[in-house]
Write a structure and sequence with these properties.
alpha+beta, Sulfite Oxidase, Chain A, domain 2, 5-stranded mixed β-sheet, 22% helix, globular, Oxidoreductase molybdopterin-binding domain-containing protein, OxRdtase_Mopterin-bd_dom
Length: 160
Amino acid sequence: MKSLKISLILVLASVLATSAQTVLKISGEVATPLALQASDIAGFPHVQVKAADRDGKTHTYDGVPVFELLKKAGVTLGGQLRGENLVKYALVRAADGYEVLFALPELDPDYSPRTIILADKADGAALPAGTGPYRIVVPEEKKPARWIREVREIEIKFAK
């Protein structure tokens, strides 16, 4: 009985440690739901974008194009993004419950010339607490209201 309790405690500790390490979930209408850790995200191709933040100053952000994350999860993109798939959207959630929405064509380079990223750095430095570890950056958007901080989840849904 004592060894069973110890085993259960070890399993529970392992599950809690794994969920604590998960920094981004991608779920919903995806072929492969993902629970990504920082090391997974670091392995994706990174790009730089320049964009003006709320302070009015232009900053250089480093991060992963959101398209690449969605592609890894098997989200309908590119040539498959037509017909009923055009009513799918990405709902992005922050640690504090804040949510923003993107239509999938906004995130797909076959449809949009801008690259929306999941940033992990600003001006060469890691994002500070309260902003990071990840933030969505939307270049050329007039108001950065969808520049969601402390991103924790991206859920793909149908609008109908």
